[in-house]
Specification:
Layout (H helix, E strand, L loop, with lengths): L2 H14 L10 H10 L7 H10 L3 H13 L6 H6 L5 H14 L5 H10 L3 H14 L5 H10 L2 H11 L5 H10 L5 H15 L1
Helix pairs in contact: 2-4, 3-4, 4-6, 6-8, 7-8, 8-10, 9-10, 9-11, 10-12, 11-12
C-alpha cells in the first residue's frame, strides 16, 4: 500500500467512526475527528468536553465550529468559549452563536464587538449581531460604524442592513463618505440599492 493509499484509508476510517481519534495525541487528528463528528449527535458531549479542555486551540476552534454547524440546542458551551484565551476560538464561538441566532447573548456579543482586543473577533461579533437581528444591537452597531477600526466599520454596514430606522439610514449614508475605501464601497453599495 502506498503512502497516499494509507492516508486515504486512515481518513476513511476516521470519517466512518471518529470516536477513537478524538483521543489521539496528535492535535491535527483530533481536529479532523471533531469535524467528522458533526453529524454524530452521540459525540456531542465529547465535543463539548474538548471545547472546554483540549490544550490545542485548533481543536477548540473546530469544536466551536462543529457545534455551530450541528445547530446545538444549548448555547452555554459556546458562550463559555467566548472567554477562551485564543482569539481564533473566540471568533469561532461568536460565529457559531450568530448562526444559532442566540438573542440572549446580544449584550455579551456587543461587549465583544466593542472591546475584544482582536479585530477578527470584533468583526465576527458585529456579523453575529446582524445575523441575530435583535434591535438591542443597534446602538452598538451605530457606535462602531463611526468609531470602530475600518474592518469593523465595514462589517457594521452589512450588519445594519437588517435593521430599519432613520438613525440606521443616516449611519449608512454617512458610511458612504467614510475615509476608508472598503467601508465607503460597502456603504455605497447599500445606499445605492436603497436609492434605486
Amino acid at each position: 500500500m502506498t503512502s497516499n493509499e494509507t492516508d486515504r484509508a486512515t481518513l476513511a476510517a476516521l470519517v466512518a467512526d471518529p470516536t477513537s481519534a478524538l483521543d489521539s495525541p496528535d492535535a491535527a487528528v483530533r481536529r479532523l475527528a471533531v469535524a467528522a463528528a458533526v453529524a454524530r449527535p452521540e459525540l456531542r458531549l465529547r465535543i463539548i468536553d474538548l471545547l472546554r479542555n483540549d490544550p490545542a486551540p485548533i481543536v477548540r476552534r473546530e469544536c466551536a465550529e462543529t457545534l455551530g454547524l450541528a445547530a446545538v440546542d444549548d448555547p452555554v458551551p459556546l458562550a463559555a468559549a467566548l472567554g477562551d484565551a485564543d482569539p481564533t476560538v473566540r471568533e469561532a464561538a461568536v460565529t457559531a452563536l450568530g448562526e444559532l441566532e442566540v438573542a440572549s447573548l446580544v449584550p455579551t456579543l456587543a461587549v465583544l464587538a466593542l472591546e475584544d482586543p482582536d479585530n477578527l473577533v470584533r468583526e465576527a461579533a458585529v456579523a453575529a449581531l446582524g445575523a441575530i437581528g435583535d434591535p438591542a444591537a443597534v446602538p452598538t452597531l451605530l457606535d462602531l460604524i463611526s468609531s470602530g477600526p475600518p474592518q469593523v466599520r465595514r462589517r457594521c454596514v452589512a450588519a445594519l442592513t437588517v435593521f430599519e430606522g432613520s438613525e440606521v439610514e443616516a449611519a449608512l449614508r454617512s458610511a458612504a463618505a467614510d475615509r476608508n475605501p472598503m467601508v465607503r464601497e460597502a456603504a455605497e453599495m447599500v445606499v445605492g440599492r436603497e436609492i434605486e
